[in-house]
């Protein structure tokens, strides 16, 4: 420091930093000065100009560096972003989207519920969204969700089929909304609170309508299930994938009650839905010392998810990233399009849009 050893506040001295180092100047009151002040001022102006130019250069360089980093970040984000396309019918249009809400809006689920092969798939997807993904949907997607749900309920009321399936869906949605409405101040739902209360009242009304359904017997008299040979009756029961359907069927007639308790029937049902390891962990013996497959089944479904079964599923082409229903061809550019398609369960479909 140039002030080392003396008080810099003493009168008559002025230290200025120049290109050659620190220089001391004396003012007129002190009787003299060291160096040429006018030449120094010129040098100082020159230094200021150089400093200003250097600052401009540094700012421009930093700006270019920042833009370069931003561009790299954008490129990296673009490569990480998931774009899925949906193929509608036989057209060659591809609509890119990267969120669950966009996918839910663009895929035509309204017409899919009219197809019996796709009905269970759509219902399961609605149930999964109601459990955990409802808040991730946009306002338009949430409105579309309720519209599709209304069409599903109306179809069940008209056909009088899949009643229990829709009851469970409505109960799941109502339970989720009860939890979310309490947190509406945190903006977890899109829209006014009164609108969601009205929707919850609508769900309760739908549940009441489903409970009031009276299934009418067909007017014509012909061959019934109990008129078939026992081997055919048992073969039909083996086609049922839900144990609750077996219990309900056994309550129709005494003969069906005997068949619904068949141990081999419940054993095949357990082996269809669960792995051998899961079954070994939940062994239950009857009073006779035999495995009680019926009790094991209902215990297993409380511990593990059942195997999902759908007549038709969404397919994802790994080559061109197109979503389409099974059996719907899309303009794939791969050499072997058949090997590129992958069946998606409803949970797999939701997982596509998790980043």
TrEMBL record:
The highest taxon in the source lineage is Eukaryota
Q: Keywords on this record?
A: Cytoplasm, Nucleus, Ubl conjugation pathway
Query: Might you name a Gene Ontology BP term for this protein?
Result: protein ubiquitination
Locations listed in the record: Cytoplasm; Nucleus
Pathway given in the UniProt record: Protein modification; protein ubiquitination
The protein's predominant localisation is cytoplasm
The answer to whether the entry has keyword DNA-binding is: no
Which Gene Ontology CC terms are recorded? cytoplasm; nucleus; SCF ubiquitin ligase complex
**Which residues does UniProt assign to the signal peptide?**
none
Cytoplasm as a keyword of this entry, yes or no, is: yes
InterPro entries hit by this protein: F-box-like_dom_sf (IPR036047), FBX25/32 (IPR040394)
Q: What does this protein do?
A: Substrate recognition component of a SCF (SKP1-CUL1-F-box protein) E3 ubiquitin-protein ligase complex which mediates the ubiquitination and subsequent proteasomal degradation of target proteins. Probably recognizes and binds to phosphorylated target proteins during skeletal muscle atrophy. Recognizes TERF1.
Task: Share what the entry says about its subunit structure, partners included.
Answer: Part of the SCF (SKP1-CUL1-F-box) E3 ubiquitin-protein ligase complex SCF(FBXO32) formed of CUL1, SKP1, RBX1 and FBXO32.
From the Swiss-Prot or TrEMBL record, give the protein name: F-box only protein 32
